[in-house]
Amino acid sequence: MNRFALWWLRIIVSLRASWTILRKWKYGLSAGAVAIGFFLFLFWSLNLNLLWFLIRAQRLSLGDKLHVILGSPLDGIIQSGLVQGGATLLLVGLQGVVISVLVYSLRRQATTSRQAVGGSFLASAAALLGVGCVSCGTSIIAPIASLFVAGAAAEVGKQIHDTLIYVAVLAVLYALYTSGATAARTLAIEKAKTPASE
Amino acid sequence: MQVRWYQNKFVWLVGGIVGAGIAAIASLSSSPTPTASTSTPAVLSAEFTKAFSVGAANAKVTVVQYSDFLCPGCSQVSLGVMPKIIEQYVKPGKVRFEFRPMAFVAQDSTPAGEGALCATDQGKFWQYHDAAYTAVWQGYFSKGIDPSLVTLYRDGGMKAVAQAAGVDNAQFDTCMTNHAHLADIQSMTLAAQNSGVRGTPYVVVNGQPINGVPTFDMLDAAIKAAL
Known about the structure:
By secondary structure, chain A is mainly α. Chain A has eight helices and no strands. Chains A and B meet through helix 3, helix 4, helix 6 and helix 8 of A and helix 1, helix 3, strand 5 and helix 9 of B.
């Protein structure tokens, strides 16, 4: 079997293991909850003060609060365009799956994949850095870029910023692959331990 | 040999990244708040303060928008969000809206800002505001063009914006050629930055700051909470 075929087989095994875990309702539900939580955190990360203010506001009904806290991120996705918005939704969805699969392996084997945890954290960090607009000064990329390239910080920052969401998606795909591989091993061990009659 | 968690370099690396991320977010979301009472930079003359404001002076809520004419997000707020806020809250007298021009995003920001002040001399600030944001949105930002690549005000676009705003061309040209308001727009930008405005759009609702582009629902909720 050549290297490419082996690599492809690993991806298939990894995805199947992740799918097997997601079909268990607890893990499917937690994947959805993590995805929604991560999505809300990404959107509100620039305005945590406002979020807290709205949560505490006595003049707003619970319905108003839920509408603005959950509805505004969806408006934000629509405003950000098809490619950027689609990539963000893909990222948060995959992040939910990765975390759920990681938790499954951790609970069953008390072990997890370092690569998966690293990939997931890298994806989260890249996604957070990608929030805001570099040219307008609402992103934290420009100040970071200015430490290295003082003259062209905005331009370099913009280029970094534009690619961050794709870096985040690649990182979370890698995390999905590695966490799925760990989960596949966990599932195989469980299957081996299960008596044949069951 | 068993490695304890605190001896693991990976744990420290991940912890470092998470810590840096939290610190960055905390610093962004807790930026100094220009409150309603201090939102008007001292450098802004009474004439400009009046020209840049709409709504009842004694309204219970004041919404301040710091904005650059070359900022894509500001175009979205000025053309898409604020007209609804003005219709729903400012016209009934519940909210006073104040606009604070800044010029720092791109090379064309300064002439665009000067143009706004020259139009103000003729009592046409809001007409210029609408014409400038519409021109830059339709010609550039709706196509995803970066502010640094906007050449509107170098390609004769200033005349088109001025015409759309309905200003007297001769008077406007003299004002622009003499850079009559260059120092003013620079002072306004500096004053806003000194009061804690790090990026635009930056909207303040009765002292509650909103970083980045707010959706209508966000502003609506913030106003309702303050009313």
